[in-house]
Amino acid sequence: MGRSPCCDETGLKKGPWTPEEDQKLVKYIQKHGHGSWRALPKLAGLNRCGKSCRLRWTNYLRPDIKRGKFSEEEEQTILNLHSVLGNKWSAIASHLPGRTDNEIKNFWNTHLKKKLIQMGFDPMTHRPRTDIFSSLPNLIALANLKELIDHHSLEEHALRLQTEAAQMAKLQYLQYLFPPQPPASSNIVTGSNQINNIGAFSDMEAFNLLNSLASLKDSPSVSSLSQLDLSASSLQGINDSIPFSRLPDLQIPCNYQPPPTKGMAQASEFTVFSQGGNSPISPFQFASSSTPFPPSVAPPVTQISSMVNSLGDASSPSSYGEEAPSVWHDLLEDPMFHDIA
DNA sequence: AAGGACGCCAACCGCGGCGCA
DNA sequence: TTGCGCCGCGGTTGGCGTCCT
């Protein structure tokens, strides 16, 4: 309904703008304002469609446009806003004075999206990618840790710490796969269905799931799972929705070498914030819920945890468009899972 | 030095929303 | 209520510059 026919007209110039055209457009708008974009080209003496003129003005010629590289603060703001708004580029641009939606969109597509992928985050959900392949390094690390514990005589204290770290990592991984569902009253606008899909498991479902795992652990058929200490205290952990802020405490086993991705180096450029208990949104969100939104100043940059880094591998396929395993049974029965565990 | 691959970004395309008659 | 015209938005494309082999 109501499609503009302006660009279907033949004889109108397309493609890059010449300095002369720019000058005509700027002069006209400075003198008369843009008024009706449809009528503007004729009035300004331009052989362009109104759409083209509007785009040229809003994305390039407008006097208040800020050009040049995005600052770290702007980058952080884009990340935060995108985690809440999704691909609402105009809405994001409205919080970045002097930046156009087109510029932000391009910056996202060429830089930020790649960075998130390299760090093992899904650029749409801002969550660690949930596909099993992207988590393999982490699972392998856990296996290596077990090897270490089995074959080396360590001090009891160190052993206990490492075992706890392994438990925490596994529990957190479960949490990543089935993050808590956003509250029904949540008014957060998401630009992606992914967010809603991924939040399909509630805390209680995850808790029940772990209970069923606990009952399975004594079964000879799944003996490999017995490494997972699913005591009541550790189960309490996931029921409390382990936040991201716990991640930096985790240690990767000393014999584990993370994949040599560029993202590893870039990781420190980003900030990871606590998700809080039930936050349905990005790890790039602000730690304090009392922080006014949108932020005017980016928070201090902290180091991303090695745990988060190890979750993803830039070379592995993205989880974008995929779903977390819908049935845990399938996962547990998968021979690969047994091998890893 | 040449040319192929890759990245960046300005510009285009097409759809949906909104106002108005 | 319906249809039309316009605008704005998000996705995509294509050209240019740079890097790599």
Descriptive overview:
Helix 7 (136-151) packs antiparallel against helix 8 (156-177). The radius of gyration is 25 Å and the shape is elongated. Among the domains are: 19-61, Arc Repressor Mutant, subunit A (Orthogonal Bundle), CATH 1.10.10; 72-119, Orthogonal Bundle (Arc Repressor Mutant, subunit A), CATH 1.10.10.60; 131-178. It has 15 helices and no strands. It has helices at 19-32, 40-44, 50-61, 72-85, 89-93, 101-118, 136-151, 156-177, 193-198, 203-216, 232-239, 262-266, 306-311, 328-333, 335-340. 46% of the residues lie in helices and 0% in strands. It starts with 18 loop residues before the first helix and ends with a helix. The protein has 341 residues and is mostly helical. The protein binds a DNA duplex (21 and 21 nucleotides) through helix 3 and helix 6.
What is the name of the CATH superfamily of the domain at 72-119?
Homeodomain-like
Examine the coordinates and then state which fold CATH places here, giving the name of the CATH topology of the domain at 72-119.
Answer: Arc Repressor Mutant, subunit A
CATH architecture of the domain at 72-119: Orthogonal Bundle
Low-confidence stretches: 1-8, 151-155, 171-341
Query: What's the N-to-C terminus distance?
Result: 56 Å
Mean pLDDT: 55
Q: Count the strands?
A: 0
| Element pattern in H and E | HHHHHHHHHHHHHHH
Q: Regarding CATH, which class of the domain at 72-119?
A: Mainly Alpha
Question: Which class do the helix and strand fractions yield?
Answer: mainly alpha
